[in-house]
Task: inverse folding
């Protein structure tokens, strides 16, 4: 895994936006929960998409219960609990999958990662590689 300062250095001028389907009134709470796990959330834009328009536009599906609560997800929750995190009853749709997207400055989608389950997300290294690839392709960087 890449060190935090290395991540910040390697991402350079890249901007990060977090899009969630949490209601706008819950955005601060959602942001705080995620901030504990990210490099530098102060440089992120936080957007609420409760109608999931962006999710539909990116063709990000909802998963079956088995795909959401698979052994990998259960292990992930176990690691969080062992690290001292507390779990609360979910209030959002636990079956809605997420996506990670690299967007070029001209607004074109460069890369879309659509993980098959919540425990399967691209690593920071994969995201950096996608940003680097977009830069070398000349997508406006």
Result:
């Amino acid at each position: 895994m890449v060190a935090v300062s290395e991540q910040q250095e390697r991402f350079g001028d890249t901007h990060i936006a977090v899009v969630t389907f949490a209601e706008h009134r819950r955005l601060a709470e959602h942001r705080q929960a995620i901030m504990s796990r990210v490099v530098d959330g102060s440089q992120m834009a936080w957007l609420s998409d409760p109608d999931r328009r962006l999710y539909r536009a990116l063709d990000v599906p909802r998963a079956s219960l088995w795909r959401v609560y698979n052994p990998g997800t259960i292990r992930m929750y176990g690691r969080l609990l062992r690290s001292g995190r507390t779990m609360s009853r979910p209030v959002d749709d636990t079956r809605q999958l997420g996506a990670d997207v690299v967007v070029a400055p001209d607004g074109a989608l460069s890369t879309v990662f659509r993980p098959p389950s919540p425990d399967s997300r691209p690593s920071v290294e994969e995201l950096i590689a996608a940003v680097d690839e977009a830069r070398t392709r000349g997508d406006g960087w």
Remarks:
- The chain has a mean pLDDT of 77.
- The CA atoms of residues 81 and 125 lie 25 Å apart.
- The domain at 4-137 is CATH 3.40.30 (Glutaredoxin).
